[in-house]
Design a protein that fits this description.
The complex is a heterodimer of chains A (about 450) and B (about 450). With about 450 residues, chain A is an alpha+beta fold. Chain A has helices at about 35-50, 75-80, 100-115, 135-145, 150-160, 180-190, 195-215, 240-245, 280-285, 315-330, 345-355, 360-365, 385-390, 395-415; strands at about 15-20, 25, 60, 90, 120-125, 250, 260-265, 270-280, 295-305, 335-340, 420-430, 430-440. In chain A, the strands form two sheets. In chain A, strands 1, 2, 3, 4, 5, 8, 9, 10, 11 and 12 form a ten-stranded mixed β-sheet that branches. A two-stranded antiparallel ribbon of chain A has the order 6-7. In chain A, helix 1 (about 35-50) crosses helix 2 (about 75-80), helix 3 (about 100-115) crosses helix 14 (about 395-415) and helix 4 runs antiparallel to helix 5 (about 150-160). Chain B has about 450 residues and is an alpha/beta fold. Chain B has a seven-stranded parallel β-sheet, with helices on both faces. Chain B is about 40% helix and about 15% strand. Chain B folds into two domains: about 35-195, NAD(P)-binding Rossmann-like Domain (Rossmann fold); about 210-440, Rossmann fold. Classes of the chains: A alpha+beta (about 450), B alpha/beta (about 450). At the A-B interface, helix 1 of A face helix 8, strand 9 and helix 9 of B. Chain B: It comes from Flavimobilis rhizosphaerae. Chain B: It holds the Pfam family adh_short_C2. Chain B: Belongs to the short-chain dehydrogenases/reductases (SDR) family.
Chain lengths: ~450, ~450
Amino acid sequence: MTTSPTPSSPREAYVLGGNRIPFGKVGGAYARSSNQDMLTAALDGLVARYGLQGERLGEIVGGAVLKHSKDFNLVRESALGTALDPRTPAFDLQQACATGLEAVITVSNKIRLGQIESAIAGGVDSTSDAPVAVSPGLRRALLTAARARDLPTRLKAFAKVRPADLAPDAPRTDEPRTGLSMGEHQAVTTARWGITREAQDEIALRSHHNLAASYERGFQDDLVTPYRGLVRDQILRPDTSAEKLGKLSPVFGKRLDHMPTMTAGNSTPLSDGASAVLLGSADWAAARNLPLLARVVDAETAAVDFVHGHEGLLMAPVHAVARLLTRQGLTLGDLDLVEIHEAFASVVLTTQAAWADDDYCRTELGLPGALGTIDPAKVNVNGSSLAAGHPFAATGGRIVAQTAKQLAELQAASPAAGPFRALVSICAAGGLGVAAILESVPTTEGDPR
Amino acid sequence: MTDRYTHLVNTGFTATLAKRLGLPQPAILRRFSAGDPLVPGPVLVLGPDTHDGSDSDAVAQHLLGLDLDVHRSPSTGTARWGAVVLVLTEIERVEDLSEHVLAAGSVLKQTARGARVVTLVREPQPDDAPALAAARQAVDGFTRSLAKELRGGATANGLVLAGGAAAGGEGVLAPLRWFLSARSAFVDGQLLTVGPADVPAQDDARPLEGRVAVVTGAARGIGAAIARTLARDGAAVVCVDVPAAGEHLAKVANEVRGTALQLDITADDAGERIVAHARARHGRLDVVVHNAGITRDKLLANMDAARWDSVLAVNTAAQLRINDVLLASDLFRDAPRIVSLASTSGIAGNRGQTNYGASKAGVIGMVRATSPLLADVGGTANAVAPGFIETEMTARIPFATREVARRLNSLQQGGQPVDVAEAVAFLGSPGAGAVSGQVLRVCGQNLVGA
């Protein structure tokens, strides 16, 4: 169906490969691993897979959402611990759950501009080793004491500390401006779009089955490197069923007027993990015999006004995708694969419901009519966050790497067809949403192998 | 994995004590270190030298060309001998042996640590005169017995020249150099048959330069040592192991600056995926080392189908399937090498290992039958049969059993993974082109299985 490639600029950026560690449960296999440990492992696995030992890459860009203040140079420090040339520069980037995808976009833009030839985009998060801060009262006392020149002043600083100040300040995932958790926000959106419990459980079931099947057929063999004894994602339940999912009690939306539908089974649990994606120019890849899995075509970031309740917190990708497709002159029908990050099963459903709604698309997206519908068989074909888990900043890398590989497989299976096109859509805290289009690389001279 | 006993009987007071008590004193073996000389002292080349261009002369000339201190008579040397090469290819009667073997015997008390004795003889043929066949076969028993007499980490091995192989050709000389070198540390009492194949001269420092090697089971132990040794010898190494071993595999791949390929070798498309990876990433494929293997020990009376089938599937059937793909591939055409890991259990048998013994004997049958299929493209297929090797696996054997197992060989110690790796690297090298369909034991001349 997609016969001509979208217009390309003189220089292109390609996804060449990826690697991640299996994602762990909070307090699970990686309970004692730091963000730096996990990101280093993901990078080193990538280096090993593609023989990049001693390479000086153009740049490594990535980040973590839950980050210790000492990790101000997390990515650079991780890079120094790998087999890469220590002269490889790096910087940290942070955009909540879109960190990983934003890192891919950032480095691919640099490659397209000719500023760098190669890069790794990555992300990592640990909810097990989350930063725990001291209270503002204790922090002020500690800093004042540190500046004091004599003992009395130092003691005086601590005299102001109250017992309540001694309680640690754990990180929160609640939205700072509304005080509501992400789940509660999405429960409102889910109810607004009339998404059923059954439909959400069906998404969750498909995610587990698709991811399990991808492991079984060896698809993940060159995408995942085991870490600390964990070989597959700890959350993955290959044998889950509609009955088992149906028995779980709702956890979000219990205070709403509607029947609550969001359970632990159709919401993504907190997790630990890291991912890395290798990108480069065609020349750089050719010089190293690396395959061009997919071209990074274009990307768009959107934000919505969720604070005043006008739009759902996790609905920004709906807007980003509409603008991205319009700019590229594409429709939903031009897509062969669609990856919608499963923060919650209902995100996959509300996103598609919005695109199918004529009235919404006219008034909210400024389109002449509904954006359209997507064949469910094209959505999250190798499973997504409900089955793999969602270590916030690591999710983008996971999705981009496995989607690029899937595109390359589609292309290899139909050399005469293509290019095949994929859409990646990721929602993030703060009412943010990032979308990107990847496209397979048709082989001009026979089988690339 | 450490052999504390060998350490103790070689150091300080405990060494003196062991000597007084008459305890066995296994030597610290001479192992390869870049820059070390080929042999630890002068080389004595013995053998009939009745005419110009005799085999012994050809061998001596070659060794002289390596800047070695070569002598043709035992009386001339003063330093401790580094090696004795007995070129017996031109003997015709058992009576011819006496002069040369007694000359060798006269220097054995003045040999350096890690010295080498290597015999060269022609393969006895069914149509040989009985006296000739007896003389040639005698060298076999002589070599094996001498190996059991040597001390101080010295070894005795033999090359059996088959099908008109020339003693002065690289096909014979490269294996000779390997036996003389520190790389053959744990190979003792072995006779290796060398055919007449034409072999180009090789640089022993980097024999695998420009070659691409695949090692299965590379994440740990012997497989990791093989990957390191092949990389040291110049090869680009594709490290293969099951996805579950990926973390260690990545470490090994990064260490050897190779690539990691997570793959279950029992998968139907394992061979295709190996060839595709080698083609896409390295553009060629020259050496495939079938090292991955499993044990599921049980007496046959208690054996279940899962234990039997899985061992045969991984250790034998997977290698056969991958070899089929290699043999059909246009990538595996430039003097390719297949090296399979067998085991002394597949030769002598081992109680509780009917499945493992069968699988490893199967591997030996496989390489013998695969060898002629590769002859057209200058390829070889061989097996390496390790004896007791100090690995994580053998470290789990109960203490007393382990102590007995590791002492029951002429070197009175277990081998190191690198010793197996050296044998694999040798058989994978261009210089071993005249060695095919053979089983090289790396067992310190284990007393079982001869």
